[in-house]
Amino acid sequence: MANPTAAMLVIGDEILSGRTRDANMHFLAGELTKQGISLSEVRIVADEKPQIVAALKALSTSYDTVFTSGGIGPTHDDITADCVAEAFGQSIDVRADAAALLQAHYDASGQEFNAARQRMARIPEHATLIDNPVSVAPGFTVENVHVMAGVPVVFQAMVASVLPTLTGGAPLLSQTLRIDRGEGDIAGPLAELAAEFDDLSIGSYPFQKNGAFGANIVIRGTDGARVDAAITKLAGMFE
Amino acid sequence: MANPTAAMLVIGDEILSGRTRDANMHFLAGELTKQGISLSEVRIVADEKPQIVAALKALSTSYDTVFTSGGIGPTHDDITADCVAEAFGQSIDVRADAAALLQAHYDASGQEFNAARQRMARIPEHATLIDNPVSVAPGFTVENVHVMAGVPVVFQAMVASVLPTLTGGAPLLSQTLRIDRGEGDIAGPLAELAAEFDDLSIGSYPFQKNGAFGANIVIRGTDGARVDAAITKLAGMFE
Q1: Domain with CATH 3.30.70.600 in chain A
Q2: d(C-alpha A37, C-alpha A162), whole Å
Q3: Could you give the count of Cα atoms lying within 13 Å of B110 in the half-sphere of its Cβ?
Q4: What was the pLDDT predicted at A167?
Q5: Is B117 in the A-facing interface, judged by CB distances under 8 Å?
Q6: pLDDT at site B64
Q7: Domain at A173-237, CATH homologous superfamily
Q8: What band does A72 get if pLDDT is binned at 50, 70 and 90?
Q9: What sign does the dihedral B164-B165-B168-B172 (CA atoms) show?
């Protein structure tokens, strides 16, 4: 289970205020799982520089790869690029390569490449750009941190260009068995199963539906035959 | 803007693997905002003791109140209570008050109060119990940390019993204006507005729909007249 690890940092007030519901985290979690990369931690912080810088430092030290979403647009509350520069001790300014991409885009569409839009070309000095096929303004990578937009369609496009550059692990296979009994009935046998199959990850996700309790038991591992064997044994326990 | 602050710690692999999509965070964010409490940070960590303990210590030190969800059921992957005890240097064992609640419940329903179910009565020594009107197994509070179940219907019931015990702030009022222009056109005037109304929080949440760009501008504050004045001025800017 030595798959590469990843963390995600979601930047912005909109999820914390309950205004919107996360979409990017759910998307990234699914994509990383397919690649055999374990999403190990997610943090959501407000548009506050000290919080963002502290989270960037903590996550980039603890995990192989970090993805951020949000805060790289042209408005006054978009401070992610400056925070990344500070966290990694790099200078930041409007960079020629990013400005050229945006200038060409706005020239072609007859829009002004104004001061606000030039903010989107502020990139830390040693960053490499991440392609944005949707709306041009690039994301960027600094060391092991990939900085991406928060708008879901742009976030997803940036993930698609970053993922092939990462070293994945063995794909994590997963099988689920729904058991219509309370976890209190399931827990004893399940603990024995977890002890026997200690190379697998066995999780119990309880639910309540129409007043009845049950749990989805999810068994994950990189060896399909072992996952099969465990789920078969589990099914036999609750026939 | 000196409203009380809160953080949330979501414990469990199911969101990190992309298997399920968060519901509790979204619910709690909305409830806290109504109470005038700022949800300032959310962390999601896997069922791993060192990660959970570290997050509990960091969040309980940094924020007025912390809510956790998940990991207090009867199965082998439910380790939250033990982590809370460790984070706060308290001992933990099956506690008589919690065991009595559960014993009565299982006696009444003719189910066995077995070893697995007794796990749900493991409560840190100095914790106070949080009522669970749905499925009896209690949550608990240690210092400024409220430990709650992950099943949404139970989580919501526990939030309902904890919230009235907290000191809220002035309710945060919010108005939103949708502007069907790219953020690059909006950003300049919006920065001026934010400078003029620096007692308010002004956020820009861009979207893309059918190929067209726009942004929802959300203005928040505790003084309704100021929020009105700012949104009126904003609307005038983009007529």
Answers
A1: 173-237
A2: 13
A3: 0
A4: 83
A5: yes
A6: 96
A7: Ribosomal protein S10 (3.30.70.600)
A8: very high
A9: negative
Average pLDDT across chain A, whole number: 92
Q: What is the pLDDT of residues A134-181, one digit of tens each?
A: 889 999 999 999 999 999 999 999 999 999 898 887 877 889 999 998
Q: Does domain A5-165 have CATH number 3.40.980.10?
A: yes
pLDDT level of residue B182 (50, 70, 90 thresholds): confident
Our CA-based measurement puts residue B29 at a distance from the nearest CA of chain A, in whole angstroms, of: 5
Query: Does A187 contact B74 at a Cβ distance shorter than 8 Å?
Result: yes
Res. A1: pLDDT tops 70:
no
Best of A3, A9, A11, A19 to disrupt the B interface (most B CBs within 10 Å) is A19
State pLDDT tens for residues B155-175. 999 999 999 898 887 877 889
All CATH 3.40.980.10 domain ranges of chain B, comma separated, are 5-165
Q: Tell which of B75, B109, B179 to mutate to test the A interface (max A CBs under 10 Å).
A: B75
Whether the CB of A129 is below 8 Å from some CB of chain B: the reply is no
Place of tokens 């914390």: A16
Note the maximum CA span of chain B.
68
Ramachandran assignment for B232, one of left (phi > 0), alpha (psi -120 to 50 degrees), beta (any other): alpha
What is the complex's ipTM, to 2 decimals?
A: 0.88
> Could you identify the residue written with the tokens 């104004």?
A114
